[in-house]
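Subgroup meeting minutes
Present: P.N., E.W., G.H.
Scribe: E.W.

1. P.N. recapped why we're keeping a running log of single-chain structure predictions: easier to compare across weeks, and new members can see raw inputs and outputs side by side.
2. G.H. added today's entry (204 aa).
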Amino acid sequence: MLTSPADTLVCDTVQIAKWQSNPAYDYNRELITPEINVFEWLSRRFGELLRKIFGSRFAEEYSGLILICLAIVILVLIIWFLYKKRPELFMRSPKNKLPYEVEEDTIYGVDFPGGIADALFRSDYREAVRLLYLQTLKRLSDEKRIDWQPYKTPTQYINEVRIPVFRQLTNHFLRVRYGNFEATRELFDSMKSLQEEIGKGGNS
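Output recorded in log:
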């Protein structure tokens, strides 16, 4: 009768315990993706830079405060840049209102000189500003410098004309029309001068 050979394999539990307690044999750590905190990483890098320049004590006391101040400055610069490039984003307007009223703001069939003169006579500078801007669009359309369409926004015309004076004129119009800025005679006269520059090519 055949008998099974004796099991000669012996488990050394003491050695296994040593291996388990040794970090060098902790292979599971290679399978775990480290969590990256961008703010903490930037804070450490910024702190290292301050330590090199001002010393460790200054870095420990002020690195966090300086980093927050820099973040605020960057945010303000971004907002300022957006305001300069897209002022209509900051205009107050009723909810769900179109940025450009199709039926009212038309450039055809309008007596612009008569309407502007009447608005100025009544000191309705808000209406005078609106008509002056539409008159400018009419002239640009007649000169084939823009492709006027009733659904287009003032920003689209800025991208078509691409001259600084027209951007200034449009920004004035947007602030008065949709931002509830006060329209004055001085503002109208300023826009009138911009309109004349646009008529000359707008490169002066």
